[in-house]
Amino acid sequence: MYPFKQIFKRDLLNLFLNPMWFFYGTVFPFLLVLILGFLSSGNYGDSITSYDYYGITMMIYIVFNTSTIAANSFMEERIKKGNMRIIYSPVPKSYIYLSKITASFVFSSVCHLFVIMLLHVLLKIHLGGSNTGFTLSILIMFEAFASVLGVLCCCIFKSENTSNQILSMVINISALLGGLFFRMDGFGSSIEKISYLSPVKWIVINMFKIIYDNDFSYYLPTALILLSLSVAALLLCGKFYRTEDYIG
């Protein structure tokens, strides 16, 4: 029986050896925070700098984009061809999508935690001091959900390209409405109320409350929702996954 650990190790290695994904997981988010923080440096105060704001919001945005990495690792043509021997081996069919989800989660988490460490050390981004663990745990749970979401979209739409197009649209609309690129409170109360329709808005609020107010009132609801959505999406992967679609 082909061990799950071997499948996972190969999938994880494929991600780390892909220069595009490694760049996207490390260099790109750091540059994104650096550039947006510099361009907006005059629009923020001393207590919360532009680097503080974009250090959190852009990492949320990048974590959400983990779903596209998961979709790519699941249905990219080059990878699909290499998995033929696994598909026809006597292993549970769930090993294929579970391995891709786990590998995407581990790869993205390692890359993003490394970037967060650099942002904290080099740009002095606040992470909550003694509450840093709670801040990072929200990102990790969101990372897990994004990893499952990317694979679920592939299971439903049977296409990496279609899945990535839909995911990119959902991610960018959520990011814009949620104020990840710029704060929405300057556009009036009506626009600000609309921004609360974006799920990432609640993650932003939760993280800033923990970091600057030592307020954990949103932490448990956010954690429970993210974990529940991850489990539900994982169950749906099992429902929609078909081997014939994967090799077709």
UniProtKB/TrEMBL annotation:
It holds the Pfam family ABC2_membrane. The chain crosses the membrane at residues 21-41, 53-74, 95-122, 134-157, 166-184, 216-237. It is a multi-pass membrane protein. It is found in: Membrane. InterPro entries: ABC2_TM, ABC_2_transport, Nod_factor_ABC_transporter. GO terms for cellular component: ATP-binding cassette (ABC) transporter complex. Its main location: membrane. Residues 4-211 form the ABC-2 type transporter transmembrane domain. Keywords: Membrane, Transmembrane, Transmembrane helix. Signal peptide: none annotated. GO terms for molecular function: ABC-type transporter activity. The keyword Isomerase does not apply. PANTHER family: ABC-TYPE MULTIDRUG TRANSPORT SYSTEM, PERMEASE COMPONENT, NODULATION PROTEIN J. This is ABC transporter permease.
